Structure formats: C-alpha cells, structure tokens
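**User:** Once you have settled down, spend some time on the protein underneath, comparing sequence with structure tokens, and judge whether sequence predicts the tokens.
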Amino acid sequence: MRPNVWTRTLVSVGAVVGLAAGGIATAGTSFAAPASKPAASSGRSGVSVLAVNNLGLSTTEAKYVQCWIQDYWGYTGALDGQLGTNSWKALQRWLKANWGYNDDIDGIVGPNTIKALQRDLKAYHGYTGAIDGIAGSGTKAAFKDFAADSRQYC
C-alpha cells in the first residue's frame, strides 16, 4: 500500500502545481492590462474619434482658440483648453461659413474638417503644405500660430 500512497501524493502535488502554473499563466495575460474606457471610438467611416483633439496645441493655446470661438461662433462650453466635440462643432460652423467645409457639424475632427482648417492656415498662418486633410507637423505649427492670434480674445 505504501507505493499507492506515494503515487496518489505525487499525482495530487502534480495536479496542484499544474493548476497553479496554469493560473499564473492565465493571470499574466488577464491582469497585464486592466480594462479601461477607450480613448477613441469608431465613427461612421471607421475613423477614430478622440474626445479631445488639440491638434498639438497646449492647454493654454487651446484655451485661446476657445475664447475666440466663444466670442464669434457660438461656443458655450468651458474655457478649459480641451478642444472637444463642442469646441470642434463651433470651429466647424466657422469653417463652413468661410473655408469650404461641407460636412456635418458633428465635432469630429476628420479629413474634411482638417482640409477646411488648412485653407485658413494657408491663407493667414504660414501653412505651406498640401490641402490634404492630414494634420501633420506643418498643419499643427500653423494651428499654433492661429492660437497665438486668438490670444487677444481671452
């Protein structure tokens, strides 16, 4: 009977070690990154939509833009330096009235919003790139100039 006791003991220990190892392996993947709210969601065309998109502006620079859109384009949100959906809706109203924006006033910073913005930036803020709807470094640098001009409204 002695060998039977040792066999059962070894099998039991092996099973416990196996389960523990499996639990540790699973824990490594399941606890590696806790679930969180996504920073982006999918828009109608599959384009990522960020809740806030400052296009490279600092919080202070974005606040200057918010002061300007508050004065002229119906922005009623907080002057918090976070260019969110309502900030971009106001900017889209301006872009629609002046710079050929022909899409929905939805606050989504998509290619059509960027193209219209690039038209203004090319005319008044030193943007020299293509009107391509891509917010690259040239677009972002010109948008900083736009923000600097908006400072007087705060």
Q: What stands out?
A: The helical segments are 2-30, 59-72, 85-98, 111-124, 137-150. The radius of gyration is 27 Å. Strands lie at 40-42, 48-50.
